[in-house]
Amino acid sequence: MPTLEALNNHYATDSITFQTGKGGLSKCSISHPSATAELYLNGGHLTHFQPRGHRPVLWMSSESNFEAGKPIRGGIPICWPWFGQADQEDRPQHGFARNRTWTVTQSEETSDHVTLELSLESNDETKLIWPHSFELTLRFKIGKQLSIELETKNTSKDSFKVGTAIHTYFNVANASEIELSGLDQVNYIDQLENNVCKQQQGKITINKEIDRVYVDSGHQVSIVDRAMNRVLKVTKSGSQSTVVWNPWISKATRMADFPDDGYKTMVCVETANAFSDVREIAPGDNHLIMQTICVE
Ligand code: TA6
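# 6-O-phosphono-beta-D-tagatofuranose complex -> structure
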């Protein structure tokens, strides 16, 4: 694990610095004329994004763990190489990429944005959890808008299948007052009703727990937040499944790293390769999945 001095010598710019963050974890702080942001190397986890002149775009839990090897609650967890429960008891939900320390490989600054690239490669430890060789590259482009790209390269001799979610927690004024548009008439799997398949009728509103995987959908999703006087536009590529989640009251109280009233000010809209949208990657091939967030 490189020291902060080494990270700053190699990758600091006028707007990018590396510091000790919460829990003593290494973090990258970005303060650019176009936006501010924060990213923890634990999980390659973006915990803050705020374009100049706007309120923070990402929701963060005040009760989150900040401990190496544990997922951070809020921001943008990277769920990989599976979405949801693993097929084996002793494997972590949503894969292990969000629990590993990533390596910074590139940084760049221009007048309108900064880019940061991190990597995660297979090793003996990861192979005990998931017996494949891989190279993951995570690219952030941070400016007036935010894009997150995850590239999976199969460096094995055999094909493998990956499930993924760019599991973004959005900050909203009041979850019960927002509307999500863009998924009208799209089929979804309701994870709260034994994964029964339903069809979305009109805009999505939230007044109870919601946990849905919209399938066969490359659509843009707009989070209309009138109370905050903004629309968050979520577009994507490399994904045909979109997850929408809010734990609401009882699930929020059951999560130790989630404040009891946290459900009121967040909604997850996740760009995924989930369920039938998992991707098979042949030896030497790669798969790119990307989410872009614009604030209007
Ligand atoms: O966002 C969909 C989901 O699979 C929900 O079912 C909920 O479990 C959420 O992810 C959070 O999962 P986590 O493992 O981060 O607690």
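# post-check
The helical segments are 4-11, 124-129, 248-254.
The longest strand covers residues 134-143.
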